[in-house]
Specification:
The chain has helices at residues 27-34, 39-51, 62-76, 86-92, 105-109, 147-164, 256-267, 296-306, 311-320, 361-369, 381-395, 399-420, 435-442, 444-450, 475-490; strands at 96-97, 127-128, 131-138, 175-180, 189-194, 214-218, 233-236, 241-242, 254-255, 285-286, 327-333, 343-345, 352-354, 357-359, 373-374, 423-424. Strands 1, 2, 3, 4, 5, 6 and 7 form a 7-stranded mixed sheet that branches. Strands 10-11-12 form a 3-stranded antiparallel sheet, with no helix packed on it. Strands 8-9 form a two-stranded parallel sheet. The protein is 35% helix and 12% strand. It comes from Rhabditophanes sp. KR3021. This is ZnMc domain-containing protein.
Length: 496
């Protein structure tokens, strides 16, 4: 699931203007429509959208710009306004991973022709008897921290993944482990600090104040079969690095533990999640090391890549696509020094006190689901046709398979609506298959390994007619999902 990475793209000093092109974006024409406070905000948005995969043209039209803006707002879980508002600009100032959020199909497949990160991949030759063992080595250090502290934090970051990756309801056979290598040559993942141009065509952007300030970027396992940088993690030494930003007073400080834990996910082949609670969300969060959690979303990404399809993961992603995020004031995103502090929209997965007792994650899920809006196929034939379209276009299913699974999705959402008395979605323009799910299935690696059975039996036995009925997805069904999530999250204990 996954998506991958990096903003190496077109670094823009301003907005290109070619007056002879009537379709080209003209700031003076679109600025009033976009409701931006100043032209600078439009330039900020244009630069950001191009660098992180939301726009792919050097000279987009106003319509393309607005569409790219809406895609960004959708991915970040903020109101989809289609205008350059203060919340959108604040999001764009948040320090983040340099890997992009969205790739075009041509960029996913023709990696040898496009110098960008391969969106999804895995360590094919490193998995032996369902065991994935990877080694790491630090080739260059920052002077901001003592070497022994850096090595300790790096080891802790890998240990977080090694101790929290298991998805309890799924296959127990898969084993993930890491160890420090003796030298750079023998390491699978090389970690280094660098500045500006550093030999990989992916220039760092300097300290603090830039839009979407990049702290790090990572190459996927199959970035280039003849390259020695597959899986490598590069950290921007222009930044001021501290062990743990949850205790740092400097808003512009870069927290090694938080950043590296995210980048290790990319080294494993996992891309960005649109779930702001996930480790693989594109913006890093200020959260203490004892509260860093490999979420269910992150685990599903790993398992789907290395183990295979999962009905549980598919259903969780479908739930994630319709549920709103609520503010959790205890978790703050890392914000560049030039912008205001921004509180991320998310619901804490940890238990909270209520009426003297504890509210479990599953109860939080249920409370949140009562406020969602879901698409119902009974409202209009267009809804099911929409599902068929996105299954074919985004998941590359055959028409026959897409029609079959659109019936399952219709039943799933109908059952969700019936069980939790949800509201109904009427505008499907921004309802999409989960980004991670779309990208993992679209990857050549996945297609080659799964053959023509993409999407086969994701929800269960295709011969079981009950999966096409809304009654199949009742309170007992969802309770079982939430219990499996809870059991899996309870395994997230790590000693650091």
């Amino acid at each position: 699931m996954v998506v991958g990475w990096l903003s190496l793209f077109l670094y823009i000093d301003g907005v290109p203007v070619r007056q002879q092109d009537p379709n080209q974006l003209q700031l003076d024409q679109v600025q009033p429509f976009l409701n931006a406070k100043k032209d600078y905000d439009v330039e900020v948005a244009l630069k950001y959208l191009r660098e992180y995969g939301y726009l792919h043209k050097k000279h987009p039209t106003a319509k393309e710009f607005v569409y790219g803006l809406e895609k960004f707002q959708d991915f970040m879980g903020i109101p989809i306004t289609g205008i350059v508002d203060s919340q959108t600009i604040s999001k764009m100032h948040v320090s983040r991973c340099g890997n992009v959020d969205i790739f075009r199909k041509s960029e996913r497949v023709k990696v040898q022709r496009v110098k960008r990160f391969f969106p999804i991949s895995k360590w094919e030759n490193k998995v032996v008897d369902e065991n994935l063992h990877l080694t790491w080595f630090i080739s260059t250090y920052t002077e901001d921290m003592k070497k022994q502290d850096i090595k300790r934090i790096v080891a802790q970051s890998f240990r977080i993944w090694q101790t929290q990756y298991k998805l309890k309801p799924l296959a127990d056979g898969f084993v993930l482990s890491f160890a420090e290598a003796g030298d750079e040559k023998s390491a699978d993942i090389v970690i280094k600090w660098a500045e500006d141009d550093h030999g990989d065509d992916n220039k760092f952007d300097g300290p603090g104040n830039s839009v979407g300030n990049i702290l790090a970027h990572t190459f996927f396992p199959t970035y280039n079969i003849n390259s020695g940088i597959n899986g490598d993690i590069h950290l921007d030494d222009y930044e001021f690095w501290v062990p743990d930003t949850s205790k740092s007073r400097g808003k512009g400080d870069a927290g090694l533990l938080q950043v590296l834990t995210h980048e290790i996910g990319h080294s494993l082949g996992i891309g960005h999640s649109r779930n702001p609670k996930a480790i693989m969300f594109s913006s890093y969060v200020r959260v203490s090391y004892d509260n860093i959690k490999i979420t269910f979303d992150d685990k599903c990404a790993l398992y789907w890549t290395y183990v295979g399809e999962s009905s549980l993961c598919m259903q969780i992603w479908l739930l994630n696509d319709v549920q709103p995020f609520v503010t959790n004031p205890n978790v703050q995103e890392l914000v560049s020094t030039s912008s205001e502090n921004y509180v991320t929209n998310e619901l804490s997965e940890q238990s909270s006190e209520e009426e003297g007792g504890l509210v479990s994650m599953s109860q939080n899920y249920i409370k949140r689901l009562r406020n969602v809006k879901v698409p119902l196929c009974t409202m209009s034939k267009k809804v099911r046709h929409h599902f068929v379209h996105i299954l074919q276009k985004q998941l590359h299913m055959s028409h026959e398979k897409a029609v079959s699974y659109s019936r399952v999705i219709c039943a799933f959402y109908a059952g969700l609506h019936k069980t939790y008395k949800t509201d109904v979605i009427t505008n499907l323009d921004h309802f999409k298959v989960h980004y991670q799910l779309r990208d993992v299935i679209i990857s050549p690696t996945f297609q080659e390994s799964r053959g023509s059975n993409i999407g086969e039996d994701i929800f269960g036995d295709s011969g079981d007619s009950s999966i096409y009925s809304a009654d199949h997805y009742d309170s007992a069904y969802f309770d079982n999902i939430f219990k499996q999530i809870q059991d899996s999250e309870n395994d997230n204990t790590v000693t650091i």
